[in-house]
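Record format v2
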Amino acid sequence: MCIVEDMTSAIQVHDLRKTFGRTVALDGLDLEVSTGEIHGFLGPNGAGKSTTIRILLGLLRSDSGSATLLGGDPWREVQTLHRRLAYVPGDVALWPNLTGGEVIDLLGKLRGGLDEQRRAELLERFALDPTKKGRSYSKGNRQKVALVAALSSDVELLILDEPTSGLDPLMEAVFKEAARERRRQGTTILLSSHILSEVESLCDRVSIIREGRNVESGTLEQLRHLSRTTVDATLDRPVTAEQLHAVPGLADVSVTDHHVVCAVETQHLGALLALLGQHGIRTLTSAPPTLEELFMDQYRTDPAAAQRVPTTSSTRGEAATTR
Amino acid sequence: MSTFAGTGSLVRLAARRDRVLIPVSVLALVAFAAGSAQATIDLYPTLSSALDIIRPVLSNPASVALYGPMSSLTLDSFAVFKTVLLGGVFVCLLAYIVVRRHTRTEEESGRLELLGAGAIERRSPLTAAILLGTATVVATAALTGASLAAVGLDARGSFAFAVCWLVMGLVWVGITAVAAQLTETTRGTAATSLGALGAAFLLRALGDTAGDDNPARLLSWLSPLGWGQKVSPYGDNRLWPFWLGLAAYVALVALAYQLQERRDLGGGLLPSRPGSARGSMRSVGALTTRLTRGTLLGWGVSAVAIGSVVGSIAGNLESLSNDDTTLDLMRKLAGATAGQVHLVDVFFTTELHIIAIAVAAMGISIVTRLRTEETSLRAEVLLTTTSRSAWAVSHLVVALASTAAVMALVGLVAGMADGKRSGDVGTSVGRLVPAALATVPAIWVCVAVALLLVGLAPRLTGLAWAVLITFLLLSELVPVLGLPDWMTNLSPFGHVPSMPAQEGRLLPLVLLVAVAAAVAAVGLGGLRRRDILA
């Protein structure tokens, strides 16, 4: 199979499939991460995020489809690729009798070198004691050991799987700052996270996956555009629900006499306002979707999705990829 | 809330988790004792037919060192000669496994924390582990005693046999309960409890083989395994050593509770000190060496101890084995023509083969760390920085090199101890080091089999131990049971030349190394191709 190498992409995944026994973990996943961006990788528990990441790391072998990492095959070119990336899992396990400092230095050496100054600086900022043994670190501190090792390594790509789980808000802020610094230096970051504020403040683009396939990709702005805005209006003249449904993409309509509450896909907001205008608008409030609503909307299992034939991709998915 | 709240549910939980392990182990031990007794009776239906074998056995300290003295000149005593001590050691191992699984292992994994938050008193988990361990030991001893009586052995002697195993097993329930409180890791518990078992075995070996007028024979009394032997089943049938064992059991359990009161959950009595802020490891090989350092050091010390004990026992042997029939029989056993073999050499050959099986256990434990590292998820980040081959090969190299080094050390120390007696250190060392090294290819086959399982059938990694025990039984039981020779040849140890009793042969060693290399290569290939657990 011929893969056209795209130098502006750090990660390219196409139609990736992986099953464990009878469980389908990945069902034709697509993912593209551009060089130099922080890419949010989101989805409910069990959606296949960690499976994807482990395939990219060469720990698991995909059943079919293609994955290209820094221009190479993550399964076959493991040795060369591993010197160019660093990984932080969501649950870091350490050797009980090695100190944090020893683990940081070992992982750095194996990755082909680590920035001494950054190592010292990060230990300071994360307030991590490197002389403690692995068994005496708390969950958050084990996480910090892996974060310091990864963020101070001289690598082009950071793959972070819920890296801040167990960190307090102060330390989470330190992480965000450090991640931004790495982006300024040109490092690409793939960040899987459930913390919406983290995603919102860090990510240039996000991909949302569910049940092993991609459902949305784009900037947060683009995703917001696909989501629904809530409109609450009081009118001079009453309107019926039937009249309102002339506007496409309308949902959750509730009409009581002069008062209308409904949700509309943001791209059809104009059409709804035009229709309401014909009935005389007395008061109007419109709320753009919050990030929470946006994600809840995407994470919730779509009843239509269950009936979808695996080979046809959803219209939403297509809308998302044609930017 | 009572002091032991939740103990009942914890015992049920533990019993549920061990519902295969315990019954299978107990039945295996019962079958081991009753089966070999039955086989002996079938082979030698009368005492007179067995006497030719029994006499030299009685006066041969080489077998006394391994199996203990025979309790009397009876067929019944002969029927359990090989199982009474060896089986007792297995009972101790089972007691250790059960108690450790439900104390320190649970605590280290953090599962105990989950339970500890429930309505459970802090003594309860330890109590549950001790109860389960005790019940296992009692069941094993009782069922074995009953089975021996059923096979047709003397009823009183069979009862004494049960008491003998009971004494040994109960003490190891206590020792393991204490060991679990001392250190923070499962590995530390293993080192303490198994180290005590090894020391107990060696002490009684020295005591049992010392002459009647030698004060060294009192050493047996320092060993709980020795107490069990003093019961002397099918001989004197003494029952009072039971009280000695029970007293030690009660004292050790009380000590375990005392120690537990003084420490935190997850902690040990020996606190962990801060370590280095910087690391000096530059490769995955350095990491593997570092992680196995403690194991290697422990085995190095054991090798020196075992080597010197074996070397000194050889001295006892010479003074006792003057009678011609013994020498003649031992020569025949070694398969050599009369006049060429020395009894001491036959002794060294048997001892080295048994030690080799123990050293193979060390090699297996190093290679199966690959699987432990994987299931504990510690391998996950590591394998995103280095290749699987480098990771696996580093474990393989450490296992191969350390097993060879430990055997060489055993040979060297035994040679030096033996040379001091004979006055010619150079010759003794020159004979015993090659003899010890001749067992290494067979050890490597065991190591390679463990790697094969890790690579191709990771979930069955534990089978490596079953394979080793099968090899042990093949070389121990086939000659006793009079089974055909080809069965011994199924074990790699069956192909090791009987050095120094006989001339060394190079070809079987080369073939064993070739088999080990091929098996290891298949294992490595499997590991490179499969998914890593995440």
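The longest helix of chain A spans residues 169-184.
Chain A has two domains: 9-222, 228-288.
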